[in-house]
Amino acid sequence: xxxxxxxxxxxxxxxxxxxxxxxxxxxxxxxxxxxxxxxxxxxxxxxxxxxxxxxxxxxxxxxxxxxxxxxxxxxxxxxxxxxxxxxxxxxxxxxxxxxxxxxxxxxxxxxxxxxxxxxxxxxxxxxxxxxxxxxxxxxxxxxxxxxxxxxxxxxxxxxxxxxxxxxxxxxxxxxxxxxxxxxxxxxxxxxxxxxxxxxxxxxxxxxxxxxxxxxxxxxxxxxxxxxxxxxxxxxxxxxxxxxxxxxxxxxxxxxxxxxxxxxxxxxxxxxxxxxxxxxxxxxxxxxxxxxxxxxxxxxxxxx
Amino acid sequence: xxxxxxxxxxxxxxxxxxxxxxxxxxxxxxxxxxxxxxxxxxxxxxxxxxxxxxxxxxxxxxxxxxxxxxxxxxxxxxxxxxxxxxxxxxxxxxxxxxxxxxxxxxxxxxxxxxxxxxxxxxxxxxxxxxxxxxxxxxxxxxxxxxxxxxxxxxxxxxxxxxxxxxxxxxxxxxxxxxxxxxxxxxxxxxxxxxxxxxxxxxxxxxxxxxxxxxxxxxxxxxxxxxxxxxxxxxxxxxxxxxxxxxxxxxxxxxxxxxx
Lengths: 303, 259
Description:
By secondary structure, chain A is of the alpha/beta class. Chain A has helices spanning 79-90, 106-117, 139-142, 145-158, 174-183, 222-235, 249-258, 268-271, 275-289; strands at 7-9, 12-14, 18-20, 42-44, 61-64, 67-70, 96-101, 124-128, 163-166, 188-191, 195-198, 200-201, 206-207, 213-217, 240-243, 262-265.
């Protein structure tokens, strides 16, 4: 018997728990010639703001051991083109669509969320309050429990779709932030965004990134992400989408056992365009080999 | 189309200090590659996640042979330099737009290469030779000291070396000025200072000039927005003054970008 892979995320049913992490996959078009997007649990789009953002100067990325730093700076084409081009493209696919939203101020987040409420295609919204690479907005909202609760409430007031708050690991106690998001009415949590890091180019004797600091992602941060997902799973009742360095089915299963209802694959897409499919197949194989009928039996099974 | 392939190493040779010529057997990449395109080359070491974008030096559509010439710039390219015939390496390509060879028709053409920017000019040289449509083709090659790939050009080569060990002592523009050469269209790949000088020269002389740019890449296929350059006009895809080097480039008209 084929085991059940579908999971429920605050009322939205995903065909499997594997989605892509915002910012690593555009809106899927570039990847669609390497893999069938219909196989994904969800596509999470690159962050969009109400108006176009130019992003940071280059170099925007560098490789680090088992990971990378990025400081793209949330470059995006603005809501209008995103809706006309990217959301339209995703209408062709039978997968859930989660739109990642960014802003410089509460008003900008609200503006974008209001516009998205009028769109039919997004199934859920993911609110980026944790980007470490822009000075205003992003992480500025994500590092204090009061700020997180306030912006969550503001977004929930205008959102038609379920709201996922994406949390930063760059805080003293992430469970306080998770609880604040829950108190503000969040329907789910995404965690973790990248960890702030720095690399120095010893040949040029300066920062490797033009932005000086960047967000560390990739397998290097995976154990940190598993720990934080586990901590928050004990602290809140709302579902968690686990992410941070997932590159294999084993990584994804760890996250699920720690308490994640679904997982996002990010940096691994850069190494292998079909990483998500291999993870889906690997999860299914694990369930079959261990006679587990339903993936949901594993969610949070490690207490 | 872009393809992900596991290519077999046919031959590898050190052709200069830390400069390697790698010949790979591909199924589709070589068949579809045009001059100026590149491939993403993946490390077999799982701790190095990002692809190395390497320009295509030669592509033989019939045999499927793809030749890459690269310099050791770090641990990733050092790993590639240790490949042996029979080893396998993951590639995605062909990527990017390539040089518009058709713009050479009836024109006096310069193929300007600086250092490790020289390899992609070879495939362009061969394609222009085959087309036979250019009025003249001159390869203008700048080296620090040691020369490589000179024998691979079919066109006349003009050389500049920083140390004066061969050709004109100085840079590629010193070499063309010394010879009194004129061009109607320039194709170039090399270090940013060289490209910047060519952009200024082309603007001053009113010449069409195509520049191939380089930047660190993560996805290599246009999704991650790591490898952007500044554009003079608002770009249709990004909606800001930014173009993706991996997708709208790596080759740009010099007046369309800021360097």
